[in-house]
Design goal:
Blueprint lengths: L1 E7 L4 E7 L5 H12 L10 E3 L4 E2 L16 E4 L1
Parallel strand pairs: 1-5
Antiparallel strand pairs: 1-2, 3-4, 3-5
Length: 76
């Protein structure tokens, strides 16, 4: 498990999440999107690395992407 900060520009808030580093980005986006979206529609959400300014590919795990404790991500 890793602890990351996820900023959501749509509501201007930042959240702390404990995530499984072996989970695929697609799964994480789906689960977090359902928690934060009032409609539950997560079809167009993307998870991005804040510092690198890159979209995280859905078919890779956080571990494969080098995402570790304290990383700042953005959900758009």
């Amino acid at each position: 498990m890793i602890l990351v900060d996820i900023y959501v520009p749509a509501n201007g808030r930042q959240y702390d999440f404990r995530l499984d580093e072996n989970a695929y980005t697609a799964t994480i986006v789906d689960e977090i999107g359902k928690l934060l979206s009032p409609t539950g529609d997560v079809s167009d959400l993307l998870l991005c690395d804040y510092e690198a300014g890159q979209i995280l590919p859905f078919d890779r795990t956080l571990k494969q992407l080098g995402i570790g404790n304290g990383k700042k991500l953005v959900l758009v």
